[in-house]
Amino acid sequence: MTQQNQPQKRWGTRIPRPVLTTLAAFLLALLLGVGLYWFQPWKLWQNATVHESLPTAPTSQPTAQATAHPLPPTLPQTLAQGTLISHEHATTGTAKLIRLPDGSHTLRLENLDTSNGPDLRVWLTDAPVKEGTAGWRVFDDGKYVSLGKLKGNKGDQNYAIPADVNPSAYTSVTIWCDRFDVSFGAATLTTA
Fold first, then answer.
1. Domain 75-191's class?
2. What pLDDT was estimated at residue 59?
3. Cα 72 to the chain's mean position, in Å?
4. From 39's CA, which of 3, 49, 99, 153 has a CA 20 to 30 Å away?
């Protein structure tokens, strides 16, 4: 009995090289697009500077009695403040917790200078501020309240604290990257 050369069975058909190349290029473009959207690296070279004045109490029409016995104007009062330290990105500036003349509270960032990034937020937290990489991810472990998106990565800016939030329950502030759960910089708030 002689053995004949029989063709081996293949389990699939071979995909032509041009189709594989096109498919690989499409997948690479898709991955690049998703990566660019997710990381937004161009923001590292873009700065947004904001210069807001400290808010004041709304003015009202003086009454006859108020005109006869004027009250001295009430000024904003700094309750607590701290110096921002760097975490994931170099960050400097001052954070101040301020009570306004109308009794409302605001968080003020002065001389802020940090990197721009995707989905940056300003948080009041009860977490202790730690130096170095040990402090990068601690701020979502405890109690925190988001005061909104970071208005700009440079300058002076104000963030209203909601009326139902007790500011004395929070001991620190962080510039928080919500997309990657990491602090760009933070400050311990100490009584002024």
1. mainly beta
2. 44
3. 38
4. 49
